[in-house]
Amino acid sequence: MNTSEVIRNRHSVRKYKKGVQIPRKDIETMLEAAMMAPSACNTRPWEFAVVENPEIRKQIMEISPYTKMLETASLAIVVCARPDLQEGRGSGFFPQDCGAAIENLLLQATDLGYGTCWCGFYPVMERVEKLRDLLKVSSVPLAVIAVGEADEEPKTRGFFDKERVTYIE
What we know:
Family: Belongs to the nitroreductase family.
Keywords: Flavoprotein, FMN, Oxidoreductase
InterPro entries: Nitroreductase, Nitroreductase-like
Strand order of the largest sheet: 1-2-4-3
Structural class: alpha+beta
Largest sheet: 4 strands, antiparallel
CATH topology: NADH Oxidase
Distance between the termini: 34 Å
Number of strands: 4
Strand content: 15-25%
Helix content: 25-40%
CATH architecture: 3-Layer(aba) Sandwich
Domain Nitroreductase: 7-62, 68-148
Cofactor: FMN
Low-confidence stretches: none
C-alpha cells in the first residue's frame, strides 16, 4: 500500500480473530515506526509496554470500560509518556509527541495487515494511576492500543470537510 491507501484503510477495530500470535518482528516494526515520530526538541518522551499476557489485558479491561476489545486482540501496546525527558526542552509537549508516535504505530500496523484500536487513558488520572500501578511503571500511561488480526471491517468514518478549512492568502 502507498501512504494514502494506508491512511484511508486504517480503522478502529473492536473485533479480532482470537488466538492469533503476532510475530515479534512485526511488533518491533510497529514500535520502530512509533519511535520515528517527531517530538519537541527530539526529546522522544515515550516508552512502550507490550502486553501479551491475557490476565493483564483482562485487568486493563477492568480499569477502563472502553477496552473490551482486548478480550480478542492479540496484544495491547501501552504508550507511556515521559514528561521528565522534556524538562527545560520541549516541556509540556508530551501529549502531542506521543499522539504522533501512536498514529505512526497505527499506520504501520495497518500496512502490516493488522487491525488496531486507540483507547485513551490520559488525562483521566484515576485510570492512569491504576494502569501505572498494574504495569509497575513510573511513566504516564497515555493510551492502550489493541492490536490483532481484524475479524470485522468497520466502515470508514473519516472524511474531508471543506467547512473546516480556512485558506489565508
